């Protein structure tokens, strides 16, 4: 919108799955980004109804999610898993809401845009009823790739991830804390969320594995969604998703192949100041992106930019990317989508 | 040696750097592998002299390392850093000892064999005075690669590592424990070993960075040593070394390119039962190599064997490898070298 357009009325916003880790992050991001909210409705399962959560200094009562929850709602953020989204998103749309869905339910559906504003926000020129928010790794990755993808032709991605407990929800974060404390105290710990200990441990991502290819669900999402966001449906992508014992920021060790030699200084120049990106690439101080510095941050941190010595063609560059899984990897990207929709509506 | 050859007399063994994390692991590995020892000499700095450490149920007094320490020593294990090795290994050799050196001091020296018994033990046919024990990642990696390298032609390696605190010594392990406890208790922690917090954090390997290439010392070692062990001096290797908050087992997310299509079943078949390797590759149970299961284990765990979907040529296969950094990554490999030397001498 330009300076002479009056702002649209502040919307009524609903959060489905308000009590989860992403739900709490949505409340945080709405506040942090000063998103206009006329009224906030917090929806969750019956067992949370009656409790309340704070928003902008006021308590908001949690309501049970029902088919009647969406009357008067303008924007509904869904973060309660694919089953809830498949059932209730069409109901919210029928009630007149725009849905921004953090689950995987609609991400590969042709008529549902899958959006990372920095990478493909321009694709949001219609007024879609449902917009899908990508998988956390795909969102963090494509934010960092966007300024490169806009300038050079990417012909291959190869990555291994360092994923935090938050991707498994508040329960997995608590299991990491509790099992670590037990380990330090020399006490037994009976895992509840995982089939093994999380304390001081690293393991292959705990999503279901495709028996034919051996790829897990997370990896298949990263491949399919990254291709869709970059509009390169055949892009070769190598990915191994690993969980590490950290709380809420995901790391990605990445090699990018271009169709030509690209100087690492040009890469740094393209990344510096790009929307949503912060360059952290200090060789002298050995200071590169770390989860401890990315947690709670809106920007994706990018560094360790080097020629990939494993590609004799000289066309590959490596980098290490870290982003807050709950913010850019989930809630913040959803709020950014809402900002985009609002700006489009006002334009 | 065959059944009719009398065993050689048990050697006098010295450990230089006995009080470090690898020193303790050397004592453990000598016992675990039942290596014959006539007498054990524990050598360390003056400040540890007078203390004692247990070996096979008996206390062994720690002596100060001096130029006179090696009289009568048959095998000297060095694990006190490159500076100590450069100064004292030639003295040990002059005194008649064979040196097995865990530092980087001699690893790239042409007349010093760099040995991982499973991969290139056959190179030990002379009776070298100094044998170099590789970098931990190179040792764990080449153990897993050996049965593949023997059968197929490897044309490229691409990896990201998940390295434990133990690679930084006992002090770094203690810093991980102490900083994690402080984090859980909500207390401030002043890092001593690292320039930042280790608790629930991931960071680029803390070795010095080559300002020209941006590769750190650990990565350059992995490249140079892996090429040397595999006797492929030009092998393209992509590597990013990352520390994760785990205590003593290193993980490697690896893609191997061959010069032909290699079926993943053939890879599994080659790895199953290979020396020093344990296949952990259960897709149904989502059970793959984990540091929690590799710690304290002599074998390197290998799994997540899949076609690399990022290589359209169909010639690349991914895997995830985990090995105990203090055992196969350091002390155990050194003891295995000593076993090899002993077997050669008796043959």
From TrEMBL, chains A, B:
EC number: 1.2.1.11
Residues engaged in binding substrate: 163, 243
Keywords: Amino-acid biosynthesis, Diaminopimelate biosynthesis, Lysine biosynthesis, Methionine biosynthesis, NADP, Oxidoreductase, Threonine biosynthesis
N-terminal signal peptide: none
Family: Belongs to the aspartate-semialdehyde dehydrogenase family.
Pathway(s) served: Amino-acid biosynthesis; L-lysine biosynthesis via DAP pathway; (S)-tetrahydrodipicolinate from L-aspartate: step 2/4; Amino-acid biosynthesis; L-methionine biosynthesis via de novo pathway; L-homoserine from L-aspartate: step 2/3; Amino-acid biosynthesis; L-threonine biosynthesis; L-threonine from L-aspartate: step 2/5
Molecular function per GO: aspartate-semialdehyde dehydrogenase activity; NAD binding; NADP binding; protein dimerization activity
Record-annotated Semialdehyde dehydrogenase NAD-binding domain positions: 12-127
Protein's name in the database: Aspartate-semialdehyde dehydrogenase
């Amino acid at each position: 919108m330009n300076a002479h357009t009056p702002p649209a009325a502040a919307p009524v916003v609903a959060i489905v799955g308000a009590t989860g880790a992403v739900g709490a992050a949505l409340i945080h991001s709405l506040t942090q980004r000063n998103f206009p909210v006329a009224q906030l409705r917090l929806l969750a399962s019956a067992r949370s109804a009656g409790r309340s959560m704070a928003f902008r200094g006021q308590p908001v009562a949690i309501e049970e999610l029902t088919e009647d929850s969406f009357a008067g709602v303008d924007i509904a953020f869904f973060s309660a898993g694919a089953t809830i989204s498949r059932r209730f998103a069409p109901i919210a749309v029928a009630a007149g809401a725009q849905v921004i869905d953090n689950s995987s339910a609609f991400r590969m559906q042709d008529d549902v845009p899958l959006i990372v504003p920095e990478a493909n926000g321009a694709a949001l020129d219609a007024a879609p009823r449902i917009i899908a928010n990508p998988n956390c790794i795909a969102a963090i990755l494509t934010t960092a790739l966007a300024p490169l993808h806009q300038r050079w032709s990417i012909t291959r991605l190869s990555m291994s991830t360092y994923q935090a407990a938050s991707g498994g929800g508040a329960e997995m974060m608590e299991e990491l804390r509790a099992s670590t404390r037990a380990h330090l105290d020399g006490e037994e710990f009976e895992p509840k969320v995982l089939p093994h200990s999380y304390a001081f441990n690293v393991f292959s991502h705990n999503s279901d594995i495709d028996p034919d290819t051996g790829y897990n669900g997370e990896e298949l999402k990263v491949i399919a969604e990254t291709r869709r966001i970059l509009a390169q449906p055949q892009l070769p992508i190598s990915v191994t998703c690993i969980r590490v014992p950290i709380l809420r920021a995901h790391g990605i060790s990445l090699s990018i192949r271009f169709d030509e030699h690209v100087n690492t200084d040009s890469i740094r120049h393209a990344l510096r100041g790009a929307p949503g990106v912060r360059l952290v690439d200090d060789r002298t101080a050995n200071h590169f992106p770390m989860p401890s510095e990315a947690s709670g941050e809106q920007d994706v941190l990018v560094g360790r930019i080097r020629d990939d010595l494993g590609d004799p063609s000289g066309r590959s560059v490596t980098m290490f990317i870290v982003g807050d899984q709950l913010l850019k990897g989930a809630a913040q990207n959803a709020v950014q989508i809402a900002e985009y929709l609002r700006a489009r509506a006002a334009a």
